[in-house]
Amino acid sequence: MGLFGILLALALMMWLAYRGWSVLLVAPAAAILAAAMSGEPLLAHWTQTFMGSASRFVAQWFPLFLLGGLFGKLMDDSGSINSIARFLTERLGTQRAMLSVVLASAVVTYGGVSVFVAFFVLVPMAQKMFRAADIPRRLMPATICLGAFTFTMSALPGSPSINNSIPMPYFGTTPFAAPGLGIIASLITLAFGMWWLGRAEVAARRAGEGYGGSPDPAPVVNEEIREHATATGDFDPAEIRHGQRGDGEPSFALAILPLALVIVMNFLMSLVVLPRLDFSYLSEARWGGTTIGALSGVWSVAVALAAGALAVVIVNYRRLPALRRSMDAGANSSVLPVLTVGSLVGFGAVVAAMPAFAAVRDAVLSIQGGPLVSLTVAMNVLAGLTGSASGGMAIALDTLGETYMRLALEQGIDPALMHRVATISSGTLDSLPHNGTVLTVLQVSGLTHRESYLDMVMTVIVGVVISFVAVIILGSVFGSF
Q1: How far apart are alpha carbons 75 and 135 in whole angstroms?
Q2: The Cα angle at residue 42 between residues 40 and 43, in degrees rounded to 5
Q3: What H or E segment, with its residue span, contains residue 79?
Q4: Exposed/middle/buried for 241, CB within 10 Å: 0-12, 13-18, 19+?
Q5: Burial zone of 424 (CB within 10 Å; 0-12 exposed, 13-18 middle, 19+ buried)
Q6: Strand, coil or helix: 209
Q7: What does the pLDDT look like over 339-392, one tens digit per residue?
Q8: 252-268 and 97-110 helices cross at what angle (nearest 10)?
Q9: Rounded to an integer, what distance in angstroms lies between the CA atom of residue 293 and that of residue 279?
């Protein structure tokens, strides 16, 4: 009965979340249902287990959500994202429209801009490029998503994304974990995705299919899309409409400067500054009895994003006509996403506390192939069920992170390899049809699953699956590098 209760609660949460219900309501309700069907105390699990785990997640990750939202909104309102996208598309031209859209998407998101901010700039830009090149508009979502939330989200070393950050305190790693493997995975994902998109473009031209004559819809965000988006990302799309954009745009060099600063600061803090300082005081009770290994990754990303946000303000002060409103919008954009993902983590904590969960844990850990394979399966399944890479990863590591770290040490597996496998594998089945990022980009593009989803599957799921299989094989043979 307990196992059935867990499955029923998970199915109910999936269905209601897909229907647009707020995860803030659905997650605790599903957790209480699982506890009730296991004969466990309901109120105790809600206030102690659920809220205890959710609050720990919020306390740990709110600084990154806050700074990420602030940085993304300032980049948007200053015109910096527009400037970068325009520069790349003009240099590559309409003959390489797909490549220019992919690269523009990759540059802004790898530099720390949330995909939910980038979509509202990238989609109009892609519409112009695809119309000029007469490429079917149905290929736009797959093209944007290839650059925006595949390898830049989880594979490229140094990415300040929340997905690349979550494994750090569990494995004692940095954002640059397994850099060689991350670069290889990124190249595989990019190459496969561009091959598929090129193939689709050639087939469309042979069939006489062009861009299409229908007018492009104006990007909008409704409440249902907002609920989906905040469960999968780090920016509340409703805040896009707040603040105020400036009239002008910075040059490409000034626009990309804050992005470059984020990456450089992340590198320096992770690998140069923090390792040389004495943080022995962190073992004291008043600092939580922790170590710098559990905190350095989070601190590095936080400092990098703060430096990037400050740079945007300094470089674009005159292009930010309502600086306070823009900063307020950026800060407010972080609240709903961090609480939503925290609620998913709280649900996972209640499920993990059920007696029947022991059978689930044993089944996952007994999967043939060792910890790397079982970790991959756990990440894929939970990301797919929750429709969220960050949510699925947080649940898996909150419940099994210590176990995987112990297995890694026992079997001589570098924790950096575990980090990279976890991040890449969580970004695959999270892109099923109910994923908030998928729904948002389709909504903003004015397209449907029937028109565009097959090509999205190939670029954001199949290509990434190939890349993490390659990482597992290379990591198993050569170790982490």
Answers
A1: 29
A2: 140
A3: none
A4: exposed
A5: buried
A6: coil
A7: 999 999 999 999 999 998 888 888 888 888 889 999 998 888 888 878 788 888
A8: 50
A9: 10
